[in-house]
Amino acid sequence: MSLSAQTPRVAIVTGGIGGLGTEICRQLAQAGRQVIAVDLPAREERLHAFQQEVADLNGAIRFEPADVSQFESCADLIGRVESAHGSVDILVNAAGITRDTSLRKMSPQQWHELMRVNLDGVFNMCRNVVEGMSARSFGRIVNLSSVNGQTGQFGQTNYSAAKAGVHGFGMALARETARKGITVNTVSPGYCDTALVAAVPADIREQIVADIPVGRLGLPGDIARAVTFLTADDAGYITGANLPVNGGYFMSF
Length: 253
Prior knowledge:
This protein is α/β, with parallel strands linked by helices and 253 residues long.
């Protein structure tokens, strides 16, 4: 009998309250993981709505507050989770923000705010779990990048740079940890049916969909399935990879 059949592996999902993050939490829980959804301290009504959304999973998803942009907050989070639930086996870095504007108009604050969450947050979380994973000779890390980290996007020099950096970070960490039983991979979503894309003007959204070969926006479930696949116990021979989930919007060899 495998370890996961005896004791559920503990999975942390940053950015766990939200369209993509919540669905990733759900699918990991359905795969038998004990999931910790991490987000900023939530307004009571937002947290209640999240808890109602995952109530059918009978406690397989718990919420813990943390600020991924702060190293000490991440260290404290890992300590709390390990004390309450056991060692962290799976880390999904899905937390991210946007601060869109052209570089000519971008302030240093807009650059640094985004980098602290989207790129520093990946370092802060990985740094705090990698030693434990190494000691136990098992770990699954998946970092969410973006198709715009591959193609660039007008008004997103900060976002595109951070998301490209996420995969570079992941490839390097994959090399460092491969002999320790840890895999580190990237999932790069394309345009998905989320609140962020819903806020795009209708004519622009229609053009985006027209440029996607499969003819539709992605669904949170499309991304979550890729994450669940890469975090499986038997996915140990895939590391340093980037899995694009974009409906063919961007294809590369």
